[in-house]
UniProtKB/TrEMBL annotation:
Protein name (database record): Universal stress protein
PANTHER family the UniProt entry points to: STRESS RESPONSE PROTEIN NHAX (PTHR46268), UNIVERSAL STRESS PROTEIN UP12 (PTHR46268:SF6)
Gene3D superfamilies linked to this entry: HUPs
Alphabetized CDD domains for the sequence: USP-like
Pfam families listed in its UniProt record: Usp (PF00582)
Domain UspA positions: 3-139
Family classification: Belongs to the universal stress protein A family.
The species this protein was found in: Listeria riparia FSL S10-1204
Amino acid sequence: MNQIFLASDGSPNALNATKEVIKLGAGFSEMQVTVITVIDTSEIKSAALDLKLDKDLLRLKHLKKIENTLGLLREADISHQVEILQGDPAERISQYISEHPADMLVLGSRGLNTIQEIVLGSVSHKLIKQADCPVLVVKR
C-alpha cells in the first residue's frame, strides 16, 4: 500500500481516522499520505461575501483546522502532502480520487443517526458509493 488519501476536516472523528492511517503506516515504510480537506462552499451564504473572501485567508484557516492531523502525521514520521479543494466535500473528494489513483481512502464517520443521514446524507456514505478505491470509514 503506497498511496493513502486521508479526508480531514479537523474534527475529532478525522483525528481518529488519522490515528488509523498511522497504524496502517507501521506496516508500509513507503506509504505516502495525501491529506484532502475541502472548503465547503455551501457554508458560504452569500455570493457577495464569497467575492470578498481572500482565497489565501480561506486556505490558511483550513490549514489551521487540520493542524492536529498534520502534527500527528509528522510525529509518526509519515510522508504527507495536503490538497485543499473547494466545493461539495463528497463530490470534490470523489473527483480528486478519480483523477489521482490511490490504494485507499480513509475518513472519519460523523456519527449521524438514521434520520439525519437520510435528510442530510453523509460524506462517508456518498464516498463509499462513489470512490474509485477502497474506503475505510473509522468510527469513533
